[in-house]
Structures are given as C-alpha cells and as structure tokens.
Amino acid sequence: MALVLEKHKMPEQDPQVRAHNFQEVALGYDEETAVAEANRCLGCKNPQCRPGCPVGIDIPAFIGKIKERDFDSAISIIKESSSLPAVCGRVCPQENQCEKNCVLTHKGESVAIGRLERFVADYQLDKNEEVKPIEFAPDAQKVAIIGAGPSGLTCAGDLARKGYKVTIFEALHVAGGVLSYGIPEFRLPKDKIVKREIDNLQKMGVTIEVNSIAGRLFTVDELMAEMGFDAVFVGTGAGLPHFMNIPGESLNGVYSSNEFLTRCNLMKAYDFPNHATPIAMGKKVAVVGGGNVAMDAARTSLRLGADKVYIVYRRSEAELPARAEEVHHAKEEGIDFKLLNNPVEIIGDENGWVKSLKCIRMELGEPDASGRRRPVAVEGSEFELDVDTVIMAIGNGPNPIVASTTPGMDTNKRGNIIADEETGATTKEGVFAGGDIVTGAATVILAMGAGKKAAAAIDEYLKSKK
Amino acid sequence: MFKIMYKKELSPGIFHMDIEAPRVAKKAKAGQFIVLRVDEKGERIPLTIADFDVEKGTITLIFQVLGASTMQLSALNEGDSIVDFAGPLGQPSEIDGNMGTVVCIGGGIGVAPVYPIARAMHEAGNKVISIMGAKTKDILIFEDKMRAISDEVIIATDDGSYGVKGFVTTALQQLVDRGEKIDQVTAIGPGIMMKSVCDATRPLGIKTIVSLNPVMVDGTGMCGGCRVQVGDEMKFACVDGPEFDGHLVDFNNLMSRGRMFREQEAKAKDHVCNIGLGR
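YS: structure for the whole thing
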C-alpha cells in the first residue's frame, strides 16, 4: 500500500462561523476516515509512540483494533490506561507526546493518534452503554481524593478499579476541575463529554462530593483520623492567578484568564442573563500570554462578541507554548498576534476602565535558563494598543488552603507541594499529591499521568498496611 | 440541596435566613464567609456568616436585596432549598483575650457580620463597645443581639431618628472625645463607611480591621477577581482575607471595582423581573 504522507483531515466548523458560536470547533472522524487513518499506522515492531504517552496507552494495539473495525476492543485497550479518553483525544498536546516520535514523521505527518483516540472514545460514549458498578469488598480500604480535576479523577478511576472505596471532595459546585471551569465549550463540550465521562466514573462506584472545601470543612488529618480514610491524594490544581505587577492591573476591564474563563465556562456567562453570571467586556481585547489558556481566552472573547482580539506575547512565534492546533485555529478565526511585545502599563480612563495597553517591543537575545532566547526590551519603542479589556493569561501559583492546614506535608518555596516524581508520595505518611499543585501549571495529560502513578503507589502503600 | 430552616424580613428588603449546613456550621468561625448558588443557573454569591449554630446545624445569613440573585433568594421560603452552599471560607478573625477595648462598628447590614466577631471578642474577655449605623431607625437590625454581647452600644442614624444623628464616625468621634482608650476598631459596612472610619482612626494610630466583600466568582482561591490593593501588595480577599488592615486598603480602587458589573447587574435584575423569579 502506498504511504499516505498526510493525516486525514478532521472536519471543522468554518472559521468565520465558529468564531461566533460556542459549539465544538473540530467535528471528529467518521468510521471510514478513522479506519483509513488507522491504516496509515505501520504497526512498528518497536513502536516509538507509546513511550511518549504520559499514561502509557498501548497505542499500536488500539489502532490495530480500529483497522479491524473492532471499536469496542479499541476503547477497552485505551481504558486500561486512561480514565478520560474523550477528553484526552481533544486536549492532549499530541504533537509533543505520542505523535512526536511516530516513524511516519521522517517522511510526512504522524498517524493522527489523538483524533483516533477521540473517535473511539466518542463511539463508546454515543452507545450509552450501562456502566457496570464495581462490587467493593465489605472491608475495602478507603481513599479520599481532594479535587475532581484530571489528576484526581484519574487517580480515583484507577483506585476504584483496584477495589478501593474512593470519595472525591470537590470545592466547586461541579466536578471536572479545569475541564469544567477552564477549557472552553468549543474545545471540550461540557454536557456531551466532560459530564458523561464523570458520570461514568460515578456509575462505576466513585463517590463525588461537591461544595466540599478541604482544609476548611475538614483537614487532611481529620480525613485520616476521624473520617476513616486510609490514604489521601491531593490534586487541588491551579491556584491564584499571576499578574505582571504593572500599573493598572486593578482597573475595571482587567481579568485574570482564570476569572474570565470561569465566568464563561463554569458559570455559562455566554448565556447571560439566562444564566446569572455576567462578563463585562468591551469590543477590543488584549490577551497577555502565549499558552493554551491565552488562546482559549482570546477565542472566547471573539465568541462573546469582541470585534478585535490581540494576543500579546513577549517572545516570538517559535516560543509560543500553546499547542500548534490552538494557534492555528486562533489565527484562522482572526486573532491578531502581537508577538515580541511586552505590556508595561494598563492605562485607564476617568471612570477607572481600561483605555489602552501600553507595550514595549522586544527582541530575542541570548538563550536563558529555559534554553529559549531571552526577550530583551527595545528601548524607546513603547506604543499604546487601543483596547478596553485586558486578560492576563500568564499562569498561576498554588492554592494555599490545603497545604497551610496540613502539618507535616511540606511545600517548596513557591508553595507547591513536594511530592516524589514517581509515586506522588508527600512528606506526610499516607498522603500523596499530583497535578498542577505539585508541578505548577502544566497540561491535563501530565496531571492524569501523575494521578495514575499516585494510584499505583497508593495501592502499594495500602497493601503493605493491610 | 441546602434547606432554608428560617426566614424573616428584618426590615424592608433586608432578610434573615438560616440555612441547614451542619458540616459548615461545625467549622465556621467569626469573620468567615460562605458562597451559595440559588439554582442551577445561578451565580455564586459570597455572603459573610452572621451566625452559626452547631446544634441546629445552621448558618445565619443576613442579606439585602440588591440584584437578581438576592432577589431570587429572598423569594424562597422556609422549607425551600438552594442548590449549592460552600464554606467556611476565608481567614477567621484574629481574636484573643488581650485585645483591651475594641470598638466594633457595623454600618447597614454590616452589623450582621460584625455580630459574631464582637461576640467572640466579648466571650474572650475584652471590653466591647459597639457602634451601629443605619440610614434611619426602621432599618436598624440586630440591636438586641448586639446589646447582649456589648459593654456599650451607640446607635447612629443619618436622619437622627434614633440615637446619635450622623454617621458611625460621628459616634466614634464622641468616644474619642470623652477620652475612651481604644485599642482596636473593627469596621464592616459599605466601602465608603469603612474608608471614613479608617480616615478617622489613622491619625489617632488606632489599629483598624475591615472586612471586604469584593467581586468573587469561585471564592476558593482560583479566579483572582477579589484582588485588592493592600499597601504595596496585591491581596486576594477570599484566601488572604476577608479582613485586612484598613489603613493599608485602597478603598477608591475597591469601590471602583465594585461598580464593574453595574450595567450587567441592572440587566439581570430586569431579566428576573420580566420572566419571574422562578427563572
């Protein structure tokens, strides 16, 4: 068979249309395209894709099943390693992981592993199969998980399958963490995908308690001493947003990306006033930052009715940390990339609202500690960008509530919980941690990988205690 | 679901509700707040805890009907439920037995969150002088409760219909003028009131604590909407506060940020009025 050098295209909503709605951008493969794409896989004897997956999915095996049109077996293989395949198929940065080392990249594009994962995950969700509840032993040990985001959900799924009784405590009113409050509907549908993946975990036997603020309603010590839990996993995720520490960040019209996206995604401000949470914004928006969150905030602004949306990023295109696909989609939709520009001040009008964003041009100098070329300000090159809304998407620090109420669980100087990279074990016995609260802001799949490793380690720990 | 166990309209537009939330009641401390949502389409609204009863398992909230969400909440009755209720949030008030003479100032419904703080200070053995401010006598709340836990209560009404005619600062000045040695002031109320109190105590060097209620979404330390300028630091009211050293708070910015959603709030209120409170 002749080698097909390019991935099969995934149908997408037209950029001009989708920039004004919140429906999903990418529409997914149909069966025929999925099988044709699977047939591009050479079935390498020594597959390089699998080591690139943070949760270790047996990629060649599931693709092999798609070739045979045995989609049920394909999804079963994925689920041995991943609790949230429909999510990962949509939001993983595959080009830096599994697809990066695909042998086909020597000649052309890799196999579209992410799109195939998404296809079989959606195939199964659409079948609405009964989820079989796990039968727990009467003396099953109990594990508490703090935070119902990617790491916590993964850890919970793996532990439940091993026969542990798992309760997830979630501070917000819905589970999902960043999947619910952060990643927009048009990239990761909430009711269709996130809610159903979480419902399935609950049907399997995982208990989720929302509105439960660990560290305030109960401490980690109380979970273990009074509430009967034998181990605890802390996956509290992203905390307070970073700001740049420039003048004007408290003006009206300035948001952190966390606030802006939470209003829109979790609270559904795009449906205001039918949903009660508002977003106050103008027609000209500057989003500061170059990661996935910045792309999400920029594209959300368009959909909320902005006429002009800028990405302001201090390095060049090559250094943009966002997934290639997000940058591509953002450009298609008309986002204006102001690269090599750094904000120095947000200027307000007489009513305390944003009037413009003062920036300075940058050029790339010598490589810094991260290996990327350090951006250096070009003296005297300041200019004002005419905007009325500014969204800061430059990362976040850890949430302090659990760490500050858990004696014996150490944090580093940034406030992140110190945890063993391989096991998630913290400095406190029986307490494990993973995801953004340990690593600082990272990706969904890395958090899932941490949740998975911690589940294995908790299993070992509890077996040794029994 | 969280059941409304008790409801009373204290004065026109000001409501008292006890919500059944035993786990929260067990852990609540003076100075903390909760976040609630009325229904599935509701916004998350932060309200300071006005009282808690461990035995009954209830949290007392006092709120004024201002926007769409408080209007909806006020339309519910005893036996009805709200969908979400999370807390206790924020840092408890710092209270010990060696505070000396404390003046607790509550303006408007700010009296409600001051009450548990004043009570805790009183129970710890401090001398508590309370100043309660209201526009007029009819909308004064919590008078009996405050009298029960205060060594002295001074009431100030804008129109002079009860107590001292003037603002809470007028009453505070009277205390200063009679030579009362004040070790700390705790003031809760509208931004402009807290600012005036701080302006009065700053030259006298009296430590002044204020409790802020800025815009919040999650209330758990994630969104950053509640950022306030305190001295040269940016602080987050939900995890660093809600109480701060009033002499360091940038009240002008706080009040300006409080107006950020004014246009939307009016629209939401119209919407609720038009389609009815059931949404």
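YS: worth flagging: The longest strand of chain B covers residues 2-11.
IM: good catch. Also Chain B has eight helices and 17 strands.
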